[in-house]
């Protein structure tokens, strides 16, 4: 049985972006006199903007609201692009979305990035027409590992959570999919090596794959049968 819907994380799953986003946030905070340590930079991976804002104590340390922090951090990426620091598409990402479209499996993106960031990444991936919808950090109250984003997507697609398949890369994202009662596949394509502060423990997922390349109907059916 194929999944009734596939819900895709974006950062670290479809595009290699989390190191870029972490650097942009670190540059913004540094511009306001706050140097982030390695733990704080690593917290960016897999977490939504609202949780990053709280964890980094931005209100206390910088004195700005979430939207101001987002806008400032996103602006830093213009400087980074001039330095040749860009988002890159991960192996098999476009092909997976095309495969799901051919199989007529409803597909959505559920991310902790804001909708403006998602629009940029979706354009880079050239997958917009293949998606039923996408949800960013503005679209649900609690970020991953809370299940809110994935449950909201299942509700909007009118699909039972147990029949959804999630593709993720971070421990927070994996936890979110599991908390929503969904099957979860973790991709290790952008995962940092063990010992690195940004390394993600993916062992909670139903399956771990080295990349999204080669995902086909047989694989999707097999994961849905995994206990």
Automatic annotation (TrEMBL):
The keyword Iron-sulfur does not apply. Keywords: Hydrolase. GO terms for molecular function: sugar-phosphatase activity. The keyword Lipid biosynthesis does not apply. InterPro entries: HAD-like_sf, HAD-like_SPP, HAD-SF_hydro_IA, HAD_sf, PGP-like_dom2. This is Putative hydrolase. It comes from Enhygromyxa salina.
């Amino acid at each position: 049985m194929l999944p009734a819907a596939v819900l895709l994380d974006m950062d670290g799953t479809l595009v290699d972006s989390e190191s870029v986003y972490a650097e942009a946030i670190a540059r913004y905070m540094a511009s306001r006199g706050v140097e982030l340590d390695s733990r704080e930079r690593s917290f960016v991976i897999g977490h939504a903007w609202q949780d990053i804002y709280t964890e980094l104590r931005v209100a206390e340390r910088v004195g700005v609201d979430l939207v101001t922090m987002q806008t400032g951090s996103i602006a830093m990426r213009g400087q980074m692009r001039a330095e040749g620091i860009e988002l890159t598409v991960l192996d098999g990402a476009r092909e997976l979305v095309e495969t799901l479209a051919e199989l007529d499996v409803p597909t959505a993106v559920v991310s902790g990035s804001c909708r403006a960031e998602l629009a940029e990444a979706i354009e880079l991936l050239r997958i917009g027409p293949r998606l039923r919808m996408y949800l960013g950090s503005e679209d649900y109250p609690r970020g991953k590992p809370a299940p809110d984003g994935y449950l909201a997507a299942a509700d909007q697609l009118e699909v039972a959570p147990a029949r959804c398949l999630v593709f993720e890369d971070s421990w927070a994202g994996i936890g979110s999919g599991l908390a929503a009662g969904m099957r979860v596949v973790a991709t290790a394509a952008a995962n940092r090596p063990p010992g690195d502060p940004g390394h993600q423990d993916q062992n909670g997922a139903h399956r771990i794959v080295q990349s999204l390349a080669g995902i086909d109907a047989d694989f999707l059916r097999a994961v849905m049968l995994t206990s």
